[in-house]
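Q: Got a minute? One more chain.
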Amino acid sequence: MIRGETGAFVAHCDKVIAGAQDALLSGLTFAVKDIIDVAGCRTGCGNPDWLRTHEPATESAPVVERLIEAGATMIGKTVTEEMAYSLIGENVHYGAPVNVNAPGRVAGGSSSGSAAAVAAGEAHFALGSDTGGSVRIPASFCGVYGLRPTHGRIPLEGIMPLGPSYDTIGWFARDPAVMSGVAHVLFDDWREPEILTRLYVPEDIWAVADEAVQAAVAPVLDRLEELVGPQQGILIGEDSSIEPQLNAYIVLQGREAWQTHRDWIEAERPTFGPGVADRFRTIAGFSDDEVARWADWRKEFSEWLRSVLNEGAVMALPTAPCIAPLVGQSQDELADVRKRILLMTGVAGHAGLPQISIPLATVDGCPVGFSIIGRLGGDEVLLDLARRIGPG
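A: Always. Here it is, folded:
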């Protein structure tokens, strides 16, 4: 597809930076989510007021520089949801990038442009960010591979923060070999994957997904069992409820987002789309007691999950609860989808664990992702499994 037909790229950065020759990623092109600095370009963060009030970056984010030094050519910046604060993929100012694998449906947010560009073949891979699912969900909706790495494993300098204790930088590709190649460049300490002996299936989280999605990814789970061993059912929820997954994320990530952007919002009074505006109004009112309560919950949950997903263990689940929603739905129509997404993505997010989405299933002709969560620092295991499961 010709660049521009998907609406995946922003107009305010048409810069191309050639990669080094005769390096690991030479010959590959990549795109950069527009919350990541590229030298000489303004970082728009999906909002015209942010674009207007910020000067061009004087240097590229280290993650961009490293990829260029490794041979990849940077071909542009991609559309993001405003302030990276949505999961759907429709920006009120810049539109919805075209999802070529699910026509008429959203690409997913907030890394919508990056996922759409990769799905359409406009770039070999693309950088996105994942706080509450913004790599994993677009990967599922667009039918591409997407990795949320272990929290803190890749430095975030030169990248707009949203919720720092949840923020990660991830990437998309159509080929698991490209996914691994990028990882070899971005990870300082590549570790050979260990032998896996335990496969957990969070039954209460699976139940959040549509029955059609569960059925579509079941054969992929069967293939994973052949590699790891029989699945073991497990419950994520405390006292038979998974609602804390959602409540903790909304409060904790919300407080961090408000602390991060409050001064700019109060000074500039930016114009946000309805969903983003509503979220910023809500998070401004969270109390210290609420934050402390959910911080305690998160600490306890993270310690438990990390003890379960230790060396030799992985967890499998659908990436998203449904196929990509139709373009143009209202915030009310999308409320249930957003809630169910956060119930599913919060599992890895709260504990800072890596998660990969693998595009090996469809429902009604639309992609649905299959996800594997690994132990802390176990990103290489996930990339290896994505390659070994493969299509077929």
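A: The domain at 9-392 is CATH 3.90.1300.10 (Amidase signature (AS) enzymes).
Q: Perfect, thanks.
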